[in-house]
Design goal:
By secondary structure, this protein is mainly β. The strands form 14 sheets. Strands 11, 14, 17, 18, 21 and 23 form a six-stranded antiparallel sheet that branches. Strands 2-9-8-5 form a four-stranded mixed sheet, with no helix packed on it. The protein has a four-stranded antiparallel sheet with strand order 10-22-15-20, with no helix packed on it.
Length: 513
């Protein structure tokens, strides 16, 4: 009996030691830590991919306009909703999404024990309440000039505000210069806040706020936007002019150019869906009429020319006072050889412009013969206004610009006295294939006859005289030789051996003893 009790005691002691060493608690081998873990579950790392995912659904479009709402439904009850960007969209705890600004936001739903669910929401602008074309604005150029043709402007100066046509038949205003203004008016059916969006073009990358200022109903606007241009073609972009306070009735947008280069197409007003926008077209303006105006007028250095008009109280401007000046009465005085634009302007009217060509002062007995008055057998030689970026200004405003090899230009003039005279030509070399100007060897480039007599051009050079701007070439006068002028008709015939030079005019001057 005592042996049995001792054996039982030893067995119990061994079992207790075994359970302790195995970490058991005598309850099927489960630890106290295991008792706190729900049955059938694993650690968080192992179970994340096995948790049920919250699914978000909606019966509406995920693309909203500002102010619109959308109801989201969750596959799991009791979730917590959050928005990644409340400036774009907010969400309440019932799953109601409200569009607050433009952009994209992610709406998420979370709950412990489930994988997070999400839905992307895009917010776009409301449809525009109305569209107003800048062609209906009042156009005011700083120098008083306004043209209805793109090619009516002076290339590169930005002095005109021409209207050109879009592919859809509407027009845009382009080639603004510093100080030019556009005043656009429209009516709104009610007073409210609205965003103004302008469709603006640029030929080079520009910060619009630095190139243009704006006022709306007299209040300054802050323009934020950059147009990035890659290449030489005009790039168009939508630029926000900011949020404004519309008034019921007539509203006024005033734009002033701080620099040249922008173009304007149309303005869109983004207000409420039930707001009506209507254009108030600028009143029609009369154009100042210059009574003695031709396409161009010519005077010599030191001479004067009176511009006349039936319109009174005009203001006159010269585009280059180093070439010609104009006084308050429209009297033009030639200062130096070149071409100048004289503009007559008056508030409330479209200005008028006259081109003045200032030629060198003729010596006593000098004869000048414009090259473009010459003829060619098949018309291959052509006279045009020169490319302004090529530099220089011809005396008459027109030069022989196209002169193929083998073609002869024949120019005639009348003389009342037979005498020996010096023959000169005024022109400049043609630009080469690398867009550079080089001295032209006239003996190799052209041949010359005066009244059928050969005139040797050996050793004669037409220099590429650089402009002060550093690019392009100016027109230069070169002596060609001594010729015998006869009474009656005289003939100058110049034949291009290579492509001929850009030729302005011939001049015959008396020989001074």
């Amino acid at each position: 009996m005592k042996k049995i009790k001792a054996l039982t005691l030893l067995s119990s002691l061994a079992l207790t030691m075994c359970l302790a060493s195995c970490g058991g608690n005598g309850n099927g081998g489960a630890s106290k830590a295991d008792e706190s873990t729900p049955a059938g579950s694993q650690t968080s790392t192992a179970s994340s991919s096995q948790l049920e995912k919250i699914e978000l659904t909606t019966e509406g479009s995920k693309t909203l306009h500002v102010g619109e709402t959308l109801q989201i439904k969750s596959s799991v009850e009791g979730v917590t909703y959050k928005s990644s960007n409340e400036k774009v969209a907010t969400v309440d705890q019932a799953g109601k999404v409200t569009a607050t600004g433009l952009g994209t936001a992610s709406i998420s739903a979370e709950k412990e024990g489930y994988r997070k669910g999400s839905m992307s929401i895009t917010v776009e602008r409301n449809p525009a309440s109305g569209k107003v074309e800048f062609e209906d604005a009042d156009h005011v150029s700083a120098d008083g000039w306004y043209s209805t043709s793109f090619f009516g402007m002076e290339f590169g100066t930005g002095s005109a505000t021409p209207v050109t046509t879009n592919d859809d038949g509407t027009a845009y205003i382009g080639s603004f210069g510093e100080g030019d203004k556009e005043t656009l008016k429209f009516t709104a059916s009610k007073a409210e806040q609205a965003e103004l969006l302008a469709y603006i073009g640029a030929s080079s990358t520009v910060n619009v706020g630095e190139a243009m200022s704006a006022k709306f109903n007299g209040a300054d606007l802050t323009i934020q936007g950059e147009i990035t241009v890659d290449g030489y073609n005009t790039t168009w972009a939508e630029v926000s002019l900011g949020t404004v306070n519309l008034i019921q009735g007539e509203n006024t947008l005033e734009l002033t150019m701080l620099a040249g280069g922008l173009s304007l197409d149309y303005l869109e007003v983004y207000g409420s869906a039930d707001t009506t926008i209507a254009t108030v077209a600028a009143p029609a303006k009369e154009t100042i009429a210059i009574t003695n105006a031709e396409e161009s007028l010519t005077i010599e250095v030191g001479d004067t020319l009176q511009i006349t008009s039936e319109t009174t109280e005009l203001t006159y401007l010269s585009s280059d006072e180093t070439v010609a000046t104009v006084d308050e009465n429209g009297l033009v005085t030639g200062v130096a050889t070149g071409q100048v634009k004289i503009t007559a302007k008056k508030d409330g009217m479209y200005g008028a412009r006259v081109t003045i060509n200032v030629t060198p002062k003729k010596a006593v007995g000098e004869i000048q013969v414009e090259a473009e008055t010459g003829v060619t057998e098949d018309g291959a030689i052509k006279a045009t206004a020169p490319w302004s970026m090529g530099g220089g200004t011809p005396a008459s405003g027109t030069t022989i610009s196209t002169w193929p090899a083998g073609e002869t230009l024949t120019v005639t003039f009348e003389a009342t006295e037979a005498k020996e005279m010096k023959l000169y030509m005024t022109g400049k070399p043609k630009m080469n294939s690398s867009y550079q100007y080089e001295d032209m060897d006239l003996g190799a480039a052209v041949s010359l006859k005066f009244n059928t007599v050969d005139v040797s051009l050996t050793g004669k050079t037409l220099p590429a005289q650089a402009l002060s701007s550093g690019w392009g070439a100016d027109y230069v006068q070169v002596e060609l030789g001594t010729v015998n002028v006869t009474v009656g008709t005289n003939t100058i015939a110049m034949t291009a051996i290579e492509d001929g030079p850009e030729l302005d005019y011939f001049s015959l001057k008396p020989i001074v003893a």
